[in-house]
Design brief:
Shape: elongated
Number of strands: 7
Number of helices: 1
Order of helices and strands: EHEEEEEE
Helix content: under 10%
Structural class: mainly beta
Distance between the termini: 29 Å
Strand order of the largest sheet: 6-3-2-1-7
């Protein structure tokens, strides 16, 4: 499958979304831990990301936080299987060609 790569970013055309998701992390650090402590503290990190939805497919969603039309910054790639919820804060609107 081929992806159509835009030549510039127009944030007004992108959905602004809030993604709630889980992530892996080093819950206890290094050292020795008893089983009760492991079972109590070994949890997934609960995350919230806000950004413009640049791209999504069956595998992932790609958010950007900053843009200059030609460049994007603070890119977050979240696997779909890690997502808990997605809220569209503002729906993107296709602008008229200029």
């Amino acid at each position: 499958m081929s992806i159509s790569i835009p030549t510039k970013i127009i944030v007004e055309e992108l959905d602004l979304v809030v993604i709630k998701w889980v992530d892996a992390y080093d819950a206890l650090g290094s050292g020795w831990f008893d089983l009760k402590e492991i079972f109590t503290k070994a949890q997934l990190a609960k995350c919230t990301s806000v950004g413009f939805e640049l791209y999504s497919d069956k595998e992932k969603i790609v958010l950007i936080a900053d843009e200059t039309q030609e460049f994007a910054g603070r890119i977050t790639v979240i696997p779909n299987s890690w997502q808990l919820s997605k809220e569209i804060v503002r729906k993107g609107k296709k602008l008229k060609a200029t």
